[in-house]
């Protein structure tokens, strides 16, 4: 009886490990696709802003009329990629929503400083890329160590031991330090 029990427990553990490994594969694929889409979006937005600045500098209305379809095409191409990025996240994910808003700002000429449009767009772009890097790194850590993530999730829900509370406090301190670093970078990029 005990041998059969150990075999059953072993089979269940093996199934759980196999499931977790498959989830990690899907997660890695999701991260790679998101990274590719963010890169493509920023590139498309960069093409759009270059043409937008050229369009705005042009005084001849006939030339502007000729440039308009290309400008719109670039904008909608970028928006297509942005929609793919948006569809990858849950609607209530605040970090993802902040990233999406920063990405959306790359197509918003109202966010540019009047006398320094190219440089202010570059700062917006740098901020969006920085946010994406932080988000992708967090997702990679979950993928790299799925059992650690599952353990942290378990401890945060059910753990009440002093070790669990101490671990949660360390996690909160690290998150606070990360947010402060991000705020300093934001202030530097936005010129505050």
How does this model look, in words?
This protein is an all-alpha fold and 192 residues long. The chain folds into two domains: 29-139; 145-192. 85% of the residues lie in helices and 0% in strands. The chain is built from six helices and no strands. The chain is elongated, with a radius of gyration of 23 Å.
Q: Round the Cα radius of gyration to an integer and report it.
A: 23 Å
Strand content range: under 5%
SS class: mainly alpha
Number of helices: 6
The main pleated sheet reads as: none
- The average pLDDT value, as a whole number, equals 82
Strands, total number: 0
Number of separate structural domains: 2
Order of helices and strands: HHHHHH
Distance between the termini: 71 Å
What ranges have pLDDT less than 50 throughout 5 or more consecutive residues?
Answer: 160-164
Helix content: over 70%
> What is the general shape?
elongated
Brief synopsis:
With 192 residues, the chain is an all-alpha fold. The protein has helices at residues 2-57, 61-86, 94-105, 117-144, 146-158, 162-190.
List the helices and strands and how they pair.
Blueprint: H1 2-57, H2 61-86, H3 94-105, H4 117-144, H5 146-158, H6 162-190
Helix pairs in contact: 1-2, 1-4, 2-3, 3-4, 4-5, 4-6
Keywords summarizing the entry:
single chain; 192 residues; mainly alpha; 2 domains; 0% strand
């Amino acid at each position: 009886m005990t041998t059969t029990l150990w075999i059953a427990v072993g089979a269940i553990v093996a199934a759980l490990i196999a499931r977790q490994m498959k989830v990690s594969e899907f997660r890695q694929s999701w991260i790679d696709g998101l990274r590719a889409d963010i890169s493509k979006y920023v590139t498309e937005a960069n093409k759009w802003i270059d043409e937008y600045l050229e369009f705005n500098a042009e005084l001849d209305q006939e030339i502007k009329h000729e440039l308009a379809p290309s400008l719109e095409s670039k904008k909608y191409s970028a928006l297509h990629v942005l929609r793919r990025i948006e569809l990858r996240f849950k609607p209530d994910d605040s970090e993802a929503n902040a990233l999406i808003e920063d990405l959306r700002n790359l197509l918003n000429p109202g966010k540019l400083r009047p006398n320094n449009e190219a440089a202010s767009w570059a700062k917006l772009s740098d901020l969006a890329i920085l946010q994406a890097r932080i988000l992708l790194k967090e997702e990679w850590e979950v993928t790299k160590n799925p059992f650690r993530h599952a353990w942290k999730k378990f401890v945060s829900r059910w753990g009440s031991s002093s070790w669990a509370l101490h671990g949660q406090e360390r996690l909160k301190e690290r998150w606070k330090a990360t947010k402060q670093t991000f705020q300093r970078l934001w202030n530097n990029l936005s010129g505050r």
